[in-house]
Design goal:
Layout lengths: L19 E14 L2 E7 L4 E6 L6 H5 L6 E10 L14 E12 L16 H6 L1 H4 L3 H23 L3 E2 L16 E4 L7 E4 L4 H9 L4 E9 L12 E10 L3 H19 L11 E3 H8 L13 E2 L10 H6 L6 E7 L5 H13 L6 E7 L4 E4 L1 H18 L6 E7 L1 H18 L10 E5 L4 E3 L6 E3 L10 H7 L9 E6 L2 E8 L4 H10 L4 H15 L6 E7 H8 L30 H7 L8
Parallel strand pairs: 3-5, 6-9, 11-17
Antiparallel strand pairs: 1-2, 1-4, 2-3, 4-5, 7-8, 9-10, 10-22, 12-13, 13-16, 14-15, 14-16, 17-20, 18-19, 20-21, 21-22
């Protein structure tokens, strides 16, 4: 017999009754039923119930066993009484009577329990992550992640993609975040960087003539942590294709992600038609470029109904250039109590508040109520109601000013309204493409032009647009994929022509010499016959987080950092030794 097991803890069933078996695993829990000791023995695969009574040769040893000890047992498989069968376990028809036992590893007092779903402080969970990972929910999340990655690889290979690995130690790459720098021992005073993404390498792979590339790629960015973002590293499905346009990219990745959602979504439906929404419309309708379409609310511009009205705050705002009034429809939100609650929501978000109108039945007909209704009169309120398609029992909320000042709050208010009123269907996946991102943006104070998104994107209209149009009106072949309010994917058709790239950077204030200095390798490659190409990257962590129905990516990452980018388990970052610093020609300057 094998030294540790003849079966794993999910394999035994009624067909094994009478067999002598060997199992190894962790003691999940111990129960004493009148002198008979029952142990749930757990391994990676599942749980088997084993037991010992005073007739067992090792009963006294079994009495000493505690939770999370690792043991090996030999015993006989017995059928459970019909009344004691556990249909929730694959092994629920049987139990194993212990004839022999060996303790393979004792366990000290646990800092957090494995059995049960008690909530423990995140700092404790991360310090003892190896114990936390034994818990059923986390174990399932890690297996889900592994299976999702495996499925993605098979689906990409099925579409003719090959996986290639790109360097981890490389030069700094402009991805919009801070680099993690790595000092060079052989080149004192110079630094490598961990890649923020394989952006330049995957484009060079296209220049080298490899038609379809993909990689489950590690990426490193020194970022401030958020619930949906790691402060150090993450993984993405990275892909690039030659001789493609934007729609080709969509047609390639959509079946991959739809297949994954159907395979692992536990019956939650995925919309089959993924709408393409312009960045401009997404900002207007949803207040964000990653809209949650499970919420049917669409915001609208209602400026004309407030211009010259009796509501002086909005009327005065509209006299300034670039201002507008937007409405957030709230079907079923027509109560003063709800409206006041949402007004406080806006105040807590840093705005003066949100005006509102709600419509109620007054017996003789419908009446518009609320401070705004009184100020602008019945004709204007009726015109607003008709534009928004609202009726009795509904409400609308209003924000005004320059969109950049209130748009994000309006978007969050839309989410809160949809959830509070039960309008958002929480049990499905809704994808949409956000397209036509602006290439450039102007600083509101200085007027300086800079890139608003990916600087390597091909501008719509090419050189002609860059030469003749107002930079703030130029759109790029850039696109994001949003699902349930999260950005899952970002990509672009690349700018593969050096003359267009130079001009694009010149508009943003970068002379040719700066482009050559920072991106010389890629620009040089483009002078040797570069194909039109494009691609995208999908965040693995966020994808699995959605599938696992979690709200934090730390619940789907095996060994995550904490909110301060610290590894509490291995105590990183750590102080270098003096010898390491000397080898690298570095000196640490003490903080004041």
């Amino acid at each position: 017999m094998h030294a540790y097991r003849s079966h794993n803890c999910a394999q035994l069933n009624a067909s094994n009754v009478g067999d002598t078996v060997r199992l190894s695993g962790w003691v999940h829990r111990v129960r004493d039923h009148g002198g008979i000791l029952f142990i749930d023995l757990r391994d990676h695969f599942g749980i088997t119930q084993v037991l010992a009574d005073p007739d067992s040769p090792v009963f006294k040893d079994v009495e000493k066993v505690r939770s999370e000890w690792v043991i090996r047992i030999d015993g006989n498989v017995m059928a459970r009484d019909e009344t004691l069968i556990n249909p929730k376990l694959p092994t629920g028809e049987v139990e194993v009577f212990i004839r022999d036992m060996e303790v393979l590893g004792e366990c000290d007092e646990l800092p957090l329990p494995v059995f049960g779903d008690q909530e423990y402080p995140e700092e404790t969970r991360l310090k003892y992550r190896f114990i936390d990972l034994r818990r059923e929910s986390l174990h399932e999340n890690m297996m889900l992640r592994s299976n999702v990655v495996s499925s993605i690889r098979k689906r990409m290979e099925g579409q003719g993609f090959n996986e290639y690995q790109t360097p981890i130690i490389t030069a700094s790459s402009p991805e919009g975040a801070r680099d993690f720098l790595v000092p060079s021992r052989l080149h004192p005073g110079k630094f490598y960087a961990l890649p923020q993404a394989p952006q330049q390498f995957k484009q060079l792979i296209m220049v080298a003539g490899f038609d379809k590339y993909f990689q489950i790629a590690p990426c490193f960015r020194d970022e401030d942590p958020r619930a949906d973002r790691s402060p150090t590293d993450f993984y993405q499905l990275d892909l690039e294709m030659s001789f493609v346009d934007q729609q080709d990219i969509f047609d390639t990745i959509e079946p991959v992600l739809k297949g994954v959602m159907e395979e692992f979504g536990k019956g939650r439906p995925t919309n089959q038609d993924w709408p393409q929404i312009s960045y401009k419309d997404a900002a207007l309708w949803y207040g964000t470029d990653k809209p949650d379409l499970r919420n049917p609310i669409k915001m609208q511009i209602v400026s004309e109904h407030f211009a010259g009205s009796g509501f002086k705050i909005f009327a005065s705002l509209l006299e300034n250039e670039g201002t507008e009034i937007r409405a957030i429809p709230a079907p079923k939100g027509g109560s003063r109590k709800f409206c006041d609650r949402m007004d406080k929501f806006a105040i807590n978000e840093g705005l003066p508040g949100m005006g509102y109108i709600f419509w109620r039945d007054q017996g003789a007909g419908m009446e518009a109520a609320g401070p705004l209704a009184k100020n602008i009169g019945p004709e204007r309120t009726e015109a607003i109601r008709q534009q928004l398609g609202l009726g009795v029992g509904d409400a609308a909320f209003f924000l005004g000013g320059k969109p950049s000042a209130f748009e994000a709050v309006a978007g969050r208010a839309r989410v809160a309204i949809g959830e509070e009123l039960g309008l958002t269907d929480m049990d499905k996946f809704e994808f949409c493409w956000v397209v036509d991102f602006p290439m450039y943006e102007a600083d509101e104070e200085t007027g300086k032009i800079d890139f608003s998104h990916n600087p390597f994107s091909m501008p719509q209209g090419g050189m002609e647009a860059l030469s003749a149009e107002d930079p703030t009106t130029i759109l790029g072949y850039q696109y994001d994929l949003a699902c349930n309010g999260y950005e899952l994917l970002s990509g672009a058709i690349r700018n593969h022509k050096p003359e267009i790239m130079y001009r694009a950077f010149e508009i943003a204030g970068y002379p040719n010499s700066e482009v050559d200095k920072r991106f010389g390798g890629m620009v040089r490659a483009f002078t040797f016959g570069a194909p039109p190409h494009g691609g995208c990257a999908t965040g693995i962590d966020r994808l699995v987080m959605l599938l696992a129905n979690e709200t934090s990516i730390r619940e789907v990452i095996m060994f995550p950092m904490n909110q301060r980018a610290e590894d509490l388990m291995l105590e990183g970052p750590s102080d270098p030794t003096n010898e390491q610093l000397r080898e690298l020609h570095l000196r640490v300057i003490p903080q004041d």
